[in-house]
Design brief:
3 helices; about 20% helix; three-stranded antiparallel beta sheet; elongated; about 180 residues
Length: about 180
Amino acid sequence: HYDAHELSDKVLLLKSLELSSPDAELELSLKKELPNYQYFDGSFDRSLRSTVAALDSLAQPDLAIENLTAATNLINKETANFKIDLKNNGYKTIDQGIVYTFIDNVKADFEIDLAQLHLAIPPGSTGSVQVELPSTTTMIANTNLKFYFDIPDDSNISDNWVSKDFNFAPALDATAALPA
């Protein structure tokens, strides 16, 4: 059972839990408890070392989607590529998460794992993700695409969505689009 009473002990325990993740419940409990040790001037334990360590332990990423654009011509039954521009407004690097895709409000069959892309967006920085839709057989004319970025510990998920309508041209072989 956890019995540390000093802020520095709690911060060190929290940092070790973040690295090894044996007890997610304890880690969450400590993150909720740490702000109770903050003084009115913003410091923790009135020490620079404790304040820096506590703030580092409490740091969270905050992904914001800034733009969604088509990176290729959009033609039914052809591969479509999109570029999503991102910004990290938080205080922790974004290096993991899952991107979900919705086509006309229906969840697509694939997901993108940001860790596999080796994407890392430090605090205050920008980055982008390329999304390739290999199957566009159901996309014709005005098609709504929506992307959601599920980022662990994101401090504000309301800006993790982007939705935009794109106009897909008819198939080059003049065949009909397939039903969804």
